[in-house]
Design brief:
single chain, 476 residues, alpha/beta, Rossmann fold, 2 domains, six-stranded parallel sheet, four-stranded mixed sheet, 22 helices, 10 strands, elongated, binds iron/sulfur cluster
């Protein structure tokens, strides 16, 4: 599996908040995606958009309920098309299958097209240990690979880097000259990658969707590199989480309309690639071998949890990230693993363990914006609450978080039950707050210290609602 740094969420968030380049990139890119998404929805009208969302939710719920059936159907159709479907129960098994296929082919070079699941598996490390030359070919992923970082955003992995940073990286790691403009950098990467495309032994891609009725893989990209990876090398290995399944091509139409609009505000991405097995006899080009590795890696466990299985409906569009007030401020690296933002705060604890990532479900204001923008209508706030509950109940968490909260709310419970205690504590609290504010000690209040470190505690009213109500009555 990829390195897990989820325990560093708070310290990494602080670093991101104090990094001007990250803050600038977050505002620029997120504003752009947000506006593009709204315009794309306006174009087909919000009414049609809602119909599509509802359809997508129904399709996904049905597919997840009959996943075993669709996996069997997919396997049969991949076989019929001349390919081989493998099933890996975890990341280690998936890596081992890839490694054995690469070894059997005596492959020395691999080109990859963006695949979150391969990030999840930590596949690049495995291949590098086998002395295989691995090249990410999506420009953002290529930059991330040169920088030896993890993706910052689901669909824009290098969005946090300025063009100056990228130019310096190209000089240091790829030996280019120092370019100043983005088109020059894109051109340079084209030259660097062209050779890799020409001579690679194996192409590895992810999959946006699997269509069971035809055994087809679907990739949506904007750079054309995905298509090169699936067709130029002699062997194509595709990796897909088992949740990527759709029953039919007709269902796929719904998701293609939703995905591009939600992600980048496009009607469709520049390339929508359909892969149904290796090249046929009459085909001039194409891979001689096609392998699809369907990966579980914790997804079956998610499927069993009625409260959290909905997370498997995610189509990784990134809209919830762009609309989350937490992600908008701390960005993707703070989340410490492959998936970030609101959906990452749900998926990561499920896949790596709540004990490793107990801060993530709390990294939300529960404003509900993620649910509103999700094209598959995933109720993320509900799942975050469920995970918070699990965390405080110590279900799967390593220690006992929430002790302070429990003490606080027990005291609160007794206080609000007694009219006398409620009134008296209000008066004492209001007086104490004024004194602490005068002495500039307000940020030392037990329980509220973290809150008041960066903002003022709202003033506790000097008069209770009852007293104010009485005053209104007297005035009349
Ligand atoms: S949870 Fe919804 S909005 Fe977020 S990435 Fe997944 S599909 Fe997109």
């Amino acid at each position: 599996m990829a390195d897990i740094k989820t325990k560093e969420f708070k310290s990494e968030s602080r670093k991101a908040l104090n990094n001007p380049q990250i803050q600038k990139s977050l505002v620029r890119v997120i504003d752009h995606f947000g506006e593009a998404r709204v315009n794309a929805i306006e174009e087909i009208t919000p009414e049609v958009w809602e119909i599509l969302r509802e359809k997508a939710r129904t399709i996904k719920t049905h597919t997840m309920s009959y996943l075993d059936h669709y996996l069997d159907l997919m396997e049969a159709n991949v076989r019929k098309n001349g390919g081989v479907m493998h099933f890996a129960k975890d990341a280690a098994e998936a890596n081992a299958i890839v490694a054995s296929l690469i070894s059997a082919k005596n492959a020395k070079s691999v080109i990859k097209s963006k695949s979150m699941i391969s990030e999840e598996m930590g596949l690049n490390h495995v291949l590098e240990e086998m002395n295989v030359d691995v090249a990410e070919t999506d420009l953002g992923e290529y930059i991330i690979q040169l920088a030896e970082e993890t993706p910052f955003h689901i669909i824009a992995p290098a969005m946090h880097k300025s063009k100056e940073e990228v130019a310096k990286l190209f000089v240091e790691k790829a030996g280019t000259k120092l370019y100043k403009e983005i088109p020059e950098l894109a051109e340079a990467s084209r030259h660097l990658l062209r050779e890799k495309f020409q001579f690679a032994d194996v192409g590895i891609t992810g999959a946006n969707f699997m269509v069971a009725e035809t055994g087809t893989l679907v990739l949506v990209t904007n750079e054309g590199n995905g298509r090169m990876c699936t067709s130029a090398p002699k062997m194509h290995i595709a990796l897909a989480g088992m949740e990527k399944m759709l029953p039919s091509l007709e269902d796929l139409g719904v998701f293609l309309r939703l995905l591009a609009r939600s992600a980048t505000g496009q009607r469709l991405t520049s390339y929508t690639t359909f892969v149904s097995g290796p090249k046929r006899e009459h085909d001039k080009d194409g891979p001689e071998e096609f392998h699809l590795i369907v990966v579980d890696n914790g997804r079956s466990k998610m499927l069993q949890d009625v409260d959290l299985r909905e997370a498997l409906n995610c189509i990784r569009c990134g809209a919830c990230l762009n609309n989350c007030p937490i992600y908008q401020n701390v960005g993707g690296h703070a989340y410490g693993w492959v998936y970030s933002g609101p959906i990452g705060a749900v998926v990561t604890p499920m896949l790596v363990g709540l004990d490793q990532s107990k801060d993530l479900p709390f990294a939300s204001t529960l404003c509900g914006r993620c649910k509103e923008v999700c094209p598959v209508k995933i109720n993320i706030p509900h799942m975050l609450l469920r995970l918070r509950n699990k965390s405080t109940q110590n279900e799967g968490a390593g220690d006992k978080p929430g002790v302070k909260e429990r003490v606080f709310f027990s005291l609160w419970f007794y206080m609000v039950k007694s009219k006398f205690l409620y009134k008296t504590s209000g008066r004492i609290g209001s007086g104490a707050q004024k004194i602490l504010r005068m002495l500039k000690l307000e940020n030392r209040i037990p329980f509220f210290g973290r809150w008041t470190r960066s903002r003022d505690l709202p003033l506790i009213p000097t008069k209770s609602f009852r007293d104010r109500w009485k005053d209104v009555g007297t005035a009349e």
